[in-house]
Amino acid sequence: MRSLYPAIEPFTTHSLTVDQRHTLYIEECGKPDGIPVLFLHGGPGAGCTPTHRQFFNPELYRIILFDQRGCGRSTPHADLVDNTTAHLVADIETIRRYLKIDRWLVFGGSWGSTLALAYAEKFNEKVSGLILRGIFLCRDQDIQWFYQRGTDRFFPDYWQDYLRPIPPDKRKDLVRAYHELLTGPDETKKLEAALAWSLWEARTATLLPDKTIQNFFAQKSVALSMARIECHYFINQTFLEPNQLLLNANAITNIPGIIVHGRYDSICPVDQAFALSEVWPGAETVIVPDAGHAATEPGIIHALITATDRFAKHDGDI
Predict the structure, then answer these.
(1) 11-32 residue pLDDT tens
(2) Which residues are catalytically annotated?
(3) Cα→Cα distances 61→25, 30, 32, 227, Å
(4) Does this model's pTM top 0.90?
(5) Please, which residues bridge with residue 290 across strands?
(6) C-alpha dihedral over 130, 81, 66, 122, to 10 degrees?
(7) Range of the domain at 127
(8) In a domain? residue 72
(9) 27, 102, 183, 233: most buried by Cβ count inside 10 Å?
(10) What gap in Å lies between CA 105 and CA 307, rounded to an integer?
(11) Dist CA 280 CA 253 (whole Å)
């Protein structure tokens, strides 16, 4: 069973202003002249952590991570203005040009898989390969499954905590009800809603409970950016056309890829991985039999490290 590579520190960091409002935190780790790989974190709104550096052999990869608009060390924090999928896709391309990279491997999980697909479908000539985990297609049915009805049947006790900030008469549209609280003027209610939203995700992310993930998502700054930005995206259908990622998959036909998905993923059910594989026949799909959604579950780690090592053997291709 493969495990994460040892912890490392960045060899350089950047503060990149992408417009009059937003400045992105970027870091580079590993080998400065190695195979360029971009890590795309989830959420949207989660930000990067030191663990994310450890999915890649630092002796072979030039590992690039950045905090997307409004989260992590990017500023302004938890900001929703000019924060859309199109803005994030444009930011990725701006980063690639800024770092003078011709083509790169793109690695993303959950929302990171969504963003990776959106980017690759627009800038396919700049992507040497894709490693995608916990596929999130962001269709209305996928959002409804987790935030309205579906996952609640597996975690009815946690669901009650998720419902608590919302008055009973507003529970027919929970995303909209949360959006009102998370963008409203009452700071106490905003924080209460953010923590309930964020902890619902943290508690359902793994097959077995993981206090480390729950404690991370319970941090005030993480909860606020996660809840506000996710809810902002989801009430706007993630700023994508209906079924956009599958309908445009012909653009990535020639890009090699590996899809990794937990069999018991209750946040993004495994049918999303199969739907993507059907329109992207060149991709290899790995279903991890003893995992849920989180990247840090042992079986998921093994599959992801195996994938990055395979790409490294072929200089970023497979």
Answers:
(1) 999 999 999 999 999 999 999 9
(2) 110, 265, 293
(3) 20, 6, 8, 32
(4) yes
(5) none
(6) 30
(7) 12-139+239-313
(8) yes
(9) 233
(10) 11
(11) 6
